[in-house]
Write a structure and sequence with these properties.
There is one protein chain. With 313 residues, the chain is α+β, with helices and mostly antiparallel strands. The protein has a domain at 154-311: 3-Layer(aba) Sandwich (Protein Transport Mog1p, Chain A), CATH 3.40.1000. It has seven helices and seven strands. The protein has helices spanning 2-8, 78-106, 141-146, 174-178, 184-193, 226-237, 299-311; strands spanning 171-172, 196-206, 210-219, 249-250, 258-261, 274-282, 285-293. The chain has a seven-stranded antiparallel beta sheet with strand order 1-2-3-7-6-5-4, with helices on both faces. The termini are far apart.
Length: 313
């Protein structure tokens, strides 16, 4: 009965059988708005039944556009665009290369120069009477330095005595030569690297304590300038405090040699210690000269020995 009565009286809210409760009228169709505060819900038996024509219409849902909607914009596919650009670039490169080869193939070939050169000029050989004579043994340094290296050493002065470390045969092995350095292993490796060939030595003692020693170190003729390398390496130490403390004085007649007089070394309970050295090289032979004494060594004395030894090379 209540359902039929609510259908006939459309738009009129029925009176509840028991305790009356206010019922909000149906909301008109309008754009989306904040939802009203919900009214107390009655029991299912007492809830009014609205007609289909007067039922409230829900606002349209703001969902994302569907793919089936033809009017909704579609997202742009970035991968397809990049692929098209890459294909276009490849086609451009291939096409440009093909066009370049085609243009080059249609050109006339550039003729190459002839392989023979008939116009090359060579000096004419001199007649037999005008040819220079070969060098003598005295003029050819290779003959002098290729022979017995000990003969190039400065001879011991008259009245001198042999030293305790004098080598009877006048030769010194590379290992013996390297043993005189602070680091023998490194010194030997260095000499082998710069292609040491042989070492001739001589020494003598004059007076009470003066000792003179000369060494000729010959290196092999290779792309390594062993004599120059060794002499320049040794002279590089001389200006340091532990050595001569200055750059040395040039040896007369040598373009690269220098001699050095070291400062005196004094120690309580011992005699004063004096030292002088000379370094030079000529060709593939390096020369080093040592003078030791308990008395002062003059520059003239070391320079004289160096100049006389240079004259024998």
């Amino acid at each position: 009965m209540e359902a039929t009565e609510s259908t006939e009286n459309a738009g009129t809210a029925p009176e509840p059988a028991q305790t009356p409760a206010p019922v909000a009228p149906p909301a008109p169709v309008a754009p989306p708005a904040p939802a009203p505060t919900p009214a107390p819900v009655a029991s299912p038996a007492e809830a009014p039944v609205a007609s289909p024509a007067e039922a409230p219409v829900a606002p349209p849902a703001l969902d994302a556009p569907s793919d089936s909607d033809p009017e909704s914009p579609r997202p742009r596919r970035v991968g397809r665009t990049i692929a098209l650009i890459a294909v276009a670039a490849v086609l451009g490169i291939v096409g440009g290369t093909a066009v370049g080869y085609g243009i080059q193939a249609e050109r006339e070939p550039t003729p190459l120069p002839a392989l023979n050169q008939p116009d090359l000029a060579y000096p004419k050989p001199l007649p037999k009477g005008q040819r220079p004579a070969p060098l003598t043994a005295a003029e050819d340094r290779s003959v002098k330095t290729g022979g017995d290296l000990r003969k190039l050493l400065l001879p011991r002065p008259a009245g001198s005595k042999k030293t305790d470390f004098h080598d009877e045969d006048g030769w010194m092995t590379p290992a013996e030569f390297a043993s005189g350095f602070e680091e023998p292993g490194y010194a030997l490796g260095y000499q082998l690297d710069i292609r040491v060939r042989r070492i001739a030595t001589t020494s003598w003692r004059t007076g009470e304590h003066r000792t003179t020693e000369i060494r000729l170190i010959q290196y092999r003729s290779t792309d390594v300038l062993g004599a120059q390398d060794y002499v320049e390496d040794q002279m590089g130490y001389m200006p340091e405090e532990e050595y001569a403390e200055y750059g040395g004085d040039p040896i007369k007649g040598s373009a690269n040699g220098h001699y050095y007089v070291f400062p005196v070394e004094k120690e309580p309970g011992y005699l004063d210690y004096y030292q002088a050295r000379a370094y030079l090289y000529r060709g593939d032979i390096a020369v080093e000269i040592f003078i030791f004494d308990t008395k002062k060594i003059s520059q003239k004395e070391i320079a004289s020995v160096a100049e006389r030894q240079l004259g024998r090379l």
